[in-house]
Amino acid sequence: MYSIQNFSPKVQIVKAITMPGGISETALEETVGIAVLADLNEQLESLAQTMQENLSARQELQGEVTELQLIDAHESTDINGTTYIEISEEEYAELQSLYPDLTLKEENGVYYVSQSGLETVIMAKQEELASLNSTGELVSLQIQSLVDQRKQAVTLLSNLLASRNETLMNIIGNIK
Amino acid sequence: MKESPNQKRDSAEEALLLLERENEEFKRHWVWRELNSTPEAFFNKVKQHVQSLNIPKEEWDNIYHKTKEAHRIRALEKRSFFKPANLKLLGAIRV
Questions:
Q1: pLDDT digits (tens, 9 = 90+) for A134-176
Q2: Cα angle at B69 between B65 and B74, to 5 degrees?
Q3: First to last CA, chain A
Q4: Distance (Å) from the C-alpha of residue B47 to the closest C-alpha of chain A?
Q5: Is the ipTM of this complex over 0.90?
Q6: Is B19 within 8 Å of A58 when comparing Cβ atoms?
Q7: B10 in reach of chain A (CB within 8 A)
Q8: Is the pTM of this model over 0.90?
């Protein structure tokens, strides 16, 4: 087990340059390397959350589009030169609540929605979905890239650990 | 052929699954056992250590970006992202 008690730091060959903070350039680079690993890990956690939200939003939106398309497939009828789709009372109430700008009408106990209005909503939702898809695709690439970078950073940490590095000792010194 | 929303959703789910697997592997890495710590605890120590060093911000930022860029390039090299068809990704995934 790696502990401060049995730690025997080897003499570190560092560049003669000492930084203003009193740390050698090599030690600073090693510290930064470990800090990058910590940040990559945080970024991955944050991206996972973003991706999960993106996925949920897309699934919800896809469901919404499918429902609207099903309504759009209903039988249409012409009323005073405008094409309407006959809908149920429940669909009427739902559309009214979700899309207040949609043209809806009720005539003799029969409920209708304007076909052009409905198709405009569907198109807007599909555009929103396409935008979420693009974001999701980009986030997937970012995740892949960060996973690779984290692996790279862990390799650096393993190497420092294997060489019983002084920088690493300073960081873990007060863990015990 | 144009990708359907379902295909896109699958790729997102795949990315999340990949991350889940990688996170498990990361947590099980031998370095944490050797350090007798967890990634979370260790990274907290890293932050404290960095703060205690009082390194000038400009100096830190400079080396930080160089180091991060080096990781990014090495990771890309390992993935053979330098194939001409993938060069465009260099700009797209600068994270």
A1: 999 899 989 988 999 999 899 888 888 888 777 777 777 654 4
A2: 155
A3: 12
A4: 7
A5: no
A6: no
A7: no
A8: no
